[in-house]
Design goal:
The chain is mainly beta. The chain is built from three helices and 26 strands. The chain starts with a helix and ends in a 14-residue tail after the last helix. Bound molecules: ligand FJE and fe (iii) ion.
Length: 317
């Protein structure tokens, strides 16, 4: 017993000093993960057309990588005028639009309008109903990511809400060749101000050549990586390098380690969330728990009721 207690204390003490000295965290955290997350599935997100002439690389939400509770879809999109996503509805989930290059203008049926520019994030809770358009704001290809996060049954019919973060308001940390933009959740001791009804982490990492990172992820959350640029080694030093436009579904565990062994930067997003564990019935842009609720959503949309009232006369300009 005495031996056990002193063993525990001598185990905890260095952990405490690790917490105080974040530089130490960087180099020891990989050994610190008691159950590192590994890649369980790797799928290439091929280009397909969506909306009105838009091109998307769908990673989560394609047949080989169906939804990963609470995530329904991740698209890396590119829209050039006149293509775009003209007037369409949503109910029962959230859309997160993160611009990588260029800008997109959105307009909704309640008069909400704005332009999301490179580095900006729009976290839109569609809740009971939104009808909107999302169109390129300039000439040439406007690029970004759109993530769909499911809402639990208690939140599906909430009033619609927007959280809009300009690039300069997004918290960033840079340390030892690792840059992270914290869109949701926490990294390297810094927290995003985005409120996530479904507990979610959304981190945009860039690793310089030779850099490595070790990011804790709550043990029971589902998580995945989408590679944007470069090539990286994910989960374990012995796994094979993975290049851009691949989605990696991760096993459960307490954190993810990544190494950039190449001479180019590696950019990827790490997305994780607490599973909702409820039935999901999706019909295009309506995501509910039962078939009856989907039929209700279609009726409400057609009849401009229960949240779709403003759809009666509204058309985007
Ligand atoms: C959609 C038609 C759509 N991926 N990425 C049908 F137009 C859409 C849709 C989008 C979308 C919008 C942006 Cl800005 C970026 C996207 C799909 O709006 F999801 C379905 N099912
Ligand atoms: Fe939309």
């Amino acid at each position: 017993m005495i031996f056990l207690r002193s063993a525990i204390i001598s185990y905890i003490k260095p952990q405490l000093s690790v917490l105080r000295n974040s530089k130490f965290v960087m180099s020891t955290a990989s050994e610190g993960f008691s159950k590192p997350r590994l890649v369980t599935k790797k799928v290439l997100a091929k280009s397909q057309s969506e909306g009105d002439g838009a091109v998307v690389r769908r990673s989560i939400g394609r047949p080989e990588s169906k939804s990963l509770d609470p995530f329904l879809m991740l698209d890396e999109f590119s829209v050039s005028p006149p293509a775009g996503f003209p007037d369409h509805p949503h109910r029962g989930f959230e859309t997160v639009t993160y611009m990588l290059e260029g800008a997109v203008t959105h307009q909704d049926f309640a008069g909400h309008k704005g332009t999301i520019r490179a580095g900006d994030v729009q976290w839109m809770t569609a809740g009971r109903g939104i009808i909107h358009s999302e169109m390129p704001a300039g000439p040439g290809a406007q690029k970004g990511l759109q993530l769909w996060v499911n809402l639990s049954s208690k939140d599906k019919m909430v009033e619609p809400n927007y959280q809009e973060l300009l690039s300069e308001d997004i918290k960033r940390v840079e340390k030892d060749g690792v840059k992270v933009n914290i869109i949701a959740g926490e990294s390297m001791g810094v927290n995003s101000s985005v409120y996530t009804r479904t507990p979610t982490m959304f981190l945009d990492f860039t690793l310089s050549p030779g850099a490595q990172m070790h990011q804790p992820v709550p043990e029971s959350w589902n998580s995945f990586v989408y590679v944007l640029e470069g090539e990286g080694v994910f989960g374990s030093t012995s796994s094979s390098p993975i290049s851009a436009h691949h989605v990696l579904v991760l096993s459960h565990g307490d954190g993810l380690s990544v190494w950039n062994n190449r001479s180019e930067p590696l950019r990827f997003v790490l997305i994780g969330g607490q599973p909702i564990n409820e039935p999901v019935v999706q019909y295009g842009p309506f995501v509910m728990n039962t078939k009856a609720e989907i039929e209700q959503a279609l009726q409400d949309y057609r009849n401009c009721k229960n949240g779709f009232e403003m759809g009666k006369y509204w058309r985007s300009q």
